[in-house]
Write a structure and sequence with these properties.
This protein has helices at residues 2-5, 27-48, 53-70, 82-89; strands at 9-13, 21-25. The chain is mainly α.
């Protein structure tokens, strides 16, 4: 509601399914959205400024692991395969 009130998005109801509402960025919304990566980088830089190189590397490693854990399991790494079993016990 607030984004629409600020003129950043427009809501459009589906003509075939009234439960579906599509949100589209307005030109103003596009302009605001284009600034998000720079603002996010500034915020992260402030919060990570005290990290040592080792801490930064650990954070990157943990974030990569989170991404891997979020992927759907492949057929090659099911619990029944030896490679997956040995990796889980490590």
């Amino acid at each position: 509601d607030r984004l629409e009130a600020k003129g950043l998005v427009v809501r459009e109801r589906s003509t075939t399914d009234r439960r579906v509402v599509r949100l589209t960025l307005t030109p103003d919304g596009d302009q605001v959205a284009s600034r998000v990566p720079a603002v996010l980088a500034d915020v992260l830089n402030v919060h990570l400024s005290d990290f040592s190189h080792a801490e930064w590397q650990l954070l990157l490693s943990l974030l990569r692991r989170m991404l891997v854990n979020g992927k759907p399991p492949s057929t090659a790494s099911t619990p029944s395969t030896p490679a997956a079993s040995s990796a889980q016990s490590a």
